Amino acid sequence: MAELHTGVGRQRGALPWPRPRRIATLSVHTSPLDQPGTGDAGGMNVYILEVARRLAEADVEVEIFTRATSGDLPPVVEMAPGVHVRHVTSGPLEGLTKEELPGQLCAFTAGVLRAEAARPPGHYDLIHSHYWLSGQVGWLAKERWGVPLVHTAHTLAKVKNAQLAAGDRPEPKARVIGEEQVVAEADRLVANTRVEARDLLDRYDADPGRVAVVEPGVDLDRFRPAVGDRDAARLAARRRLGLPTQGYVVAFVGRIQPLKAPDVLIRAVAALRDRDPAIADELTVVICGGPSGSGLDRPAALIELAASLGVADRVCFLPPQTGANLPALYRAADLVAVPSYNESFGLVALEAQACGTPVLAAAVGGLVTAVRDGVSGVLIDGHDPVDWARVLARLLPDRLCRAALSRGAERHARNFSWQRTVSGLLTVYGEAMAEHRVRLADRLAADPALSCSW
Known about the structure:
Helix 2 crosses helix 3. This protein is α/β, with parallel strands linked by helices. It is 41% helix and 15% strand.
């Protein structure tokens, strides 16, 4: 594979990279103000929120453009000092699915351009778009404003279609074409891991010189191991959430959709009951999240599945957790399961490990980076419930092994922080701005008449 860089502290030559003053962040289909774990809100929301806050702390103003989905939302919300969320009216306020949003991109783009037109010239130094819909808007805005475009895909249609879950819908051709266009036009493509970078190069023919790897982080102040006795803290967390205080707890946290594969965990419980009923009868599986994507077609599908497999008594459903309840859920669990068919990174895995809880994860996408196999958790090849049941049967009774993985999970998570992510992004931003200025200077030197238009 062609050489890639990490975007962390990278310098070329003696001159420092320029630093943006203001960034326009584009997030068309989901707002960082939405609750992760339901609808279309997930790891991308967390990423945008955490990065924007820390950019502002580094004296870089961030304005996040997202689609208005409620008449109760004010046009602009100050999310944090130096971070504003602007709600752009584009289409009906409610009732639009992500698949219907391409028809509203023109309206959304018009709202973004109008907002910038009301500012002094040169207000934004750079655009950072998230997901392909935002990349389409960023592509036009960068041409209009004369600034560089940095794009983060978060998920890629060609990858998802190659690893499609049973019963899930493939991503449409229009999205594939849209992604190819954004990959070709962006000044920089930020990949969460080297696996994602390889997908951009191999599947989308991305320019290696425009691809940078910057790993996401975790809020190490919020997600951390309990202070004091771990067993007592686990018991307190279970009581707080109304979970059984005895036996084993394995938690799934995320949106309920085929891509995330929570059904694999439920089927694994059934397989475990056949393999080792004594362990299965001590196990509670917690499914925490709300229906999303094609999971909206059958929101009660997991409840029906657990009943049909005869394990409804072993499965507990919780809504998405906010505030201190989410770290408490991670601490309440003996293991956290991430059986997704694909993840660009897998922030849930990192959050759980930061709380000292080992992770069982499918060996796909960014999860092979987020989880260190045999040290902070276990990576499982494939989605066969029998294989997952085999790992559960081995790990749950082995208290010493889980304790070692817990310590490894803490250490592994400390390698990731949002400050590190922002440091990497600032390097990427600086590279994009510097190269943009060089291209502009070259154009002006070739045709001085262009200076009046710039």
